[in-house]
Structures are given as C-alpha cells and as structure tokens.
Specification:
The complex is a heterodimer of chains A (113) and B (114). Chain A has 113 residues and is mainly β. Chain A is built from no helices and twelve strands. In chain A, strands 2, 5, 6, 10, 11 and 12 form a six-stranded mixed sheet that branches. In chain A, strands 3-9-8-7 form a four-stranded antiparallel sheet, with no helix packed on it. Chain A has a two-stranded antiparallel sheet with strand order 1-4. In chain A, a hairpin with a 4-residue loop joins β8 and β9. Chain B is 0% helix and 53% strand. The N and C termini of chain B lie far apart (37 Å). The mean pLDDT of chain B is 94. The chains are: A mainly beta (113), B mainly beta (114).
C-alpha cells in the first residue's frame, strides 16, 4: 500500500515570501500524485495533480509542484504567498485502479502580514 | 452546478448509539468515497462506491458500513459509537477514474461522541 510523508507539520511564512511544502511517497512502479488544500471549516479542494509527462506541474492559485522519481518526492511551491493561502495542505498518492487516495498528515501554512 | 452536499453538518451522539450520515454527489458523478479526518490520524479512507457497488474498503471495523443508491447518493452508518469515532467525516465524488481524477469534497459531517 502506498504511503505519504509530509515532512513539515507547520510552516509559518510572511506575506509575499516564497513557501515550499515537502512530500515524499513510498516507491512504486507508477503512481499518481496530488496536492489538496483545506481552508478552515471546508472540504478539500484540488490544487494540482501529476499523472505523467512533464515533471513540473502547475496548479491553481499560483502553486506548482515538481515530481522527482529518483527521490520519490512531490514538493509544492509558491513564489509569493498571500494571507488567503493560510490553510492546511495535503499531499496524496494513488495507485492506478486502486479506487482511493492515501493522504499525508497535512501541513498547516500560516501566512502573517 | 451544485457541489457535494453532506448532511447533517454537525451532530452529537453518546457512546453506544448509532449514526447515519448522508452524501449527495455532484450531478453525473457515479463514484462516492468516504474519509474520516481526525487531528491524530489525518485523513483515513473508509470506502468507495461506484454504481451501488463497493469497490474498495479501508481498514475500519465492521461497525462502519455504507451503501450507495441508484441515484448515486450515499450513506454511511456507524453503529455502537465509541469516543474515538469523533471526527469529521468527508464525502467526495468523482466523475471518472478515482485514482487519476479529481475528487470533489463536501464540507463534511462533524460527529462528536460523548
């Protein structure tokens, strides 16, 4: 079964500064990778996903992630954060045909003015 | 287009009782998944249904069950509630392949067991 490790549980960052959230997954022949965001008192929303092709994936709200197969990583980045980016971010992985996502423990991003 | 609707949003039960949570997926979505979210365990997969068939089940005791109706609406039931069942229960629907597609989540049903 796939597993996901998010290396940072909390990331405080100042407004307009860059942020990187780290995610590692257990190796497999092929996986699909996702980043979801959860704003307070809301469900999860997809930021971006990697299925195949280019290892640099661009998502919504200025986020991007880079798939690194040799390091089994899928780190999320944003060059300049806003107060509104304060949320919990989840990395997730799935196996083709598995009908489920396996989520990491989440990283809480707090953006301060 | 309406999103995923979960009812009730909040509920309080006592140990030993049972609870039923409901999920209405986005129109046209035939896959419905359920996840349990707690501060300690994060998001844990409960089960996934497609066209009334359970295709995958997570590692939860038999007290947790679910079903899907012909209109794709889904319910999950937890019997003999325990304090540890207190959690946010999230439902997600998907149009295509669950593994490679996008899951659309509802806002969740927050269950408190006293």
């Amino acid at each position: 079964a796939q597993s996901v490790t998010q290396l940072d549980s909390q990331v405080p960052v100042f407004e307009e500064a860059p942020v990187e959230l780290r995610c590692n997954y257990s190796s497999s022949v092929s996986v699909y990778l996702f980043w979801y965001v959860q704003y307070p008192n809301q469900g999860l929303q997809l930021l971006l996903k990697y299925l195949s092709g280019s290892t640099l994936v661009k998502g919504i709200n200025g986020f991007e992630a880079e798939f690194n197969k040799s390091q089994t990583s899928f780190h999320l980045r944003k060059p300049s954060v806003h107060i509104s980016d304060t949320a919990e971010y989840f990395c997730a992985v799935s196996d083709p045909g598995d009908y489920k996502l396996s989520f990491g423990a989440g990283t809480t991003v707090t953006v301060r003015a | 287009k309406a999103g995923v609707t979960q009812t009730p949003r909040y509920l309080i039960k006592t140990r030993g009782q049972q609870v039923t949570l409901s999920c209405s997926p986005i129109s046209g979505h035939r896959s419905v998944s359920w996840y349990q979210q707690t501060p300690g365990q994060g998001l844990q997969f409960l089960f996934e249904y497609f066209s009334e068939t359970q295709r995958n089940k997570g590692n939860f005791p038999g007290r947790f069950s679910g079903r899907q109706f012909s209109n794709s609406r889904s319910e999950m039931n937890v019997s003999t509630l325990e304090l540890g069942d207190s959690a946010l229960y999230l439902c997600a629907s998907s149009y295509g392949d669950v593994a490679s597609g996008e899951l659309f989540f509802g806002e969740g049903s927050r269950l408190t067991v006293l």
